[in-house]
């Protein structure tokens, strides 16, 4: 068997010595052994590396295959309290769903007392509530039943950052759309119908992509494959774009912004677009790095442009 | 005269040493102008008006600093944006407060801080740093930061009644884009934001001071 010593990456202090470890043990198993001696550091918050400033080793890596001698020296870094992605997503999305409805039903203390529990006389306001709520219900269901997460956890502070963003913007948008002084779109029913069509198409598109990505990866595995268009026409966007789910998401919000003609919604779309472009570019880059035969026509998020 | 001088100095160099020398000279020029004004007029009234063009011009160009000067982007960023905010959105836009004493307070604080800071950079880059400049750079701020902040906050506070009365920079409902903005409340929030931000900047400088002047090794928190 091999020996494994674990040192603190910053102070080089010897934290743990494991003797007689099986050569074909995985990093995940070593993490479990380490937790036994230091129970406050559960596996999800351990980062083990060969070099104090190097990249983290993956859970699937096998001890035998690492460039080490009979005694492997691993450096440990505490990633901080972790929280599961599922928990984060559910909290992020349940907030806006609930918050928007508080404004829609004009719960007391938001608008003037004479407006408490009144209903807007504009059709578009009711439509907007249905669309917004549908969007977040869809996201919640996808989190529970569709998505397959490659990482189990993320740092705890992310949940505060993310919730502030989602909940804050939801409240800001909902305040104006459901306001007694709300002004309906300039071009009336035409504008609303067009925007609604954009929204529905993009929601269907986004869902189709999520399903296609799920089918790409069998349950429990962490394999990565190039996504390709399927029989579903919404997935044909894969021909032009690496992350059509983001493309459709931006489209949905643009639709919602046109439908409500509300500047905060447009700003939310812009911020979301910026963030998703960063993610799409990152994903696109890692696809290019991983697959030699990656389709050259594809752009990260906007066909031909971005 | 000052505008031509500033422009000339600016053209002199956008590279590191060029910039710091330019900036340092400019702040010295401004300091001299302020002292001269006070000696001639015996009052601070009208001081802001006489220096405002170059102050605005130069403070806006300090945006470049976020990329050129090798310190934390976040710290420099916060400092530069608060300066630009004060110069353009407060003193430039709200004329009645230009003669407030608090304006002189932060102008003096900024001037002295910047002269020290830029001389520090210039001499460091030229590898000839006199100890007293290093000492000044890492000790003056202890008084100057709070003085500057006090000046800024008092100025904003003085501007509040005017902002409320005129409803400037504000949008009310109903309007076509279904949005509203109240500059008065924005200013209140800005004042409140000094509470978390100022201590962070202050303690950052205190940590730098311990490291540089007393050679303390500080283990930085990794992110």
From TrEMBL, chain A:
Chain ranges of the 3-oxo-5-alpha-steroid 4-dehydrogenase C-terminal domain: 153-306
Subcellular location: Endoplasmic reticulum membrane
Reaction equations catalysed: (2E,7Z,10Z,13Z,16Z,19Z)-docosahexaenoyl-CoA + NADPH + H(+) = (7Z,10Z,13Z,16Z,19Z)-docosapentaenoyl-CoA + NADP(+); octadecanoyl-CoA + NADP(+) = (2E)-octadecenoyl-CoA + NADPH + H(+); (2E)-hexadecenoyl-CoA + NADPH + H(+) = hexadecanoyl-CoA + NADP(+); (2E,8Z,11Z,14Z)-eicosatetraenoyl-CoA + NADPH + H(+) = (8Z,11Z,14Z)-eicosatrienoyl-CoA + NADP(+)
A GO CC annotation given for this chain: endoplasmic reticulum membrane
Record-annotated membrane-spanning stretches: 83-105, 164-182, 194-213, 254-279
Domain (TECR-like N-terminal) ranges: 3-78
Keyword Endoplasmic reticulum (UniProt): yes
Keywords: Acetylation, Endoplasmic reticulum, Fatty acid biosynthesis, Fatty acid metabolism, Lipid biosynthesis, Lipid metabolism, Membrane, NADP, Oxidoreductase, Phosphoprotein, Sphingolipid metabolism, Transmembrane, Transmembrane helix
Any one GO biological process: sphingolipid metabolic process
Alphabetized GO MF terms: very-long-chain enoyl-CoA reductase activity
InterPro entries xrefs: 3-oxo-5_a-steroid_4-DH_C, SRD5A/TECR, TECR-like_N, Ubiquitin-like_domsf
EC class (word): oxidoreductase
Predominant location: endoplasmic reticulum
Pathway where this protein functions: Sphingolipid metabolism; Lipid metabolism; fatty acid biosynthesis; Lipid metabolism; sphingolipid metabolism
Pfam family, one: Steroid_dh
Its job: Involved in both the production of very long-chain fatty acids for sphingolipid synthesis and the degradation of the sphingosine moiety in sphingolipids through the sphingosine 1-phosphate metabolic pathway. Catalyzes the last of the four reactions of the long-chain fatty acids elongation cycle. This endoplasmic reticulum-bound enzymatic process, allows the addition of 2 carbons to the chain of long- and very long-chain fatty acids/VLCFAs per cycle.
Protein name as it appears in the record: Very-long-chain enoyl-CoA reductase
Organism listed in the record: Aotus nancymaae (Ma's night monkey)
Gene: TECR
UniProtKB/TrEMBL annotation, chain B:
Family: Belongs to the very long-chain fatty acids dehydratase HACD family.
Xref: InterPro entries: Tyr_Pase-like_PTPLA (IPR007482)
First-tier enzyme category under EC: lyase
Signal peptide stretch: none
GO cellular component, one term: endoplasmic reticulum membrane
Superkingdom field: Eukaryota
Translocase is among the record's keywords: no
Pathway info: Lipid metabolism; fatty acid biosynthesis
Subcellular location: Endoplasmic reticulum membrane; Membrane
Record-annotated membrane-spanning stretches: 20-39, 138-163, 183-203
Record function comment: Catalyzes the third of the four reactions of the long-chain fatty acids elongation cycle. This endoplasmic reticulum-bound enzymatic process, allows the addition of two carbons to the chain of long- and very long-chain fatty acids/VLCFAs per cycle. This enzyme catalyzes the dehydration of the 3-hydroxyacyl-CoA intermediate into trans-2,3-enoyl-CoA, within each cycle of fatty acid elongation. Thereby, it participates to the production of VLCFAs of different chain lengths that are involved in multiple biological processes as precursors of membrane lipids and lipid mediators.
Keywords tagged on the record: Endoplasmic reticulum, Fatty acid biosynthesis, Fatty acid metabolism, Lipid biosynthesis, Lipid metabolism, Lyase, Membrane, Transmembrane, Transmembrane helix
Any one GO molecular function term: very-long-chain (3R)-3-hydroxyacyl-CoA dehydratase activity
Gene: HACD1
Enzyme Commission code: 4.2.1.134
Name by which UniProt lists this protein: Very-long-chain (3R)-3-hydroxyacyl-CoA dehydratase
Membrane topology field: Multi-pass membrane protein
Reaction(s) this enzyme catalyzes, per UniProt: a very-long-chain (3R)-3-hydroxyacyl-CoA = a very-long-chain (2E)-enoyl-CoA + H2O; (3R)-hydroxyhexadecanoyl-CoA = (2E)-hexadecenoyl-CoA + H2O
One of the protein's GO biological processes: sphingolipid biosynthetic process
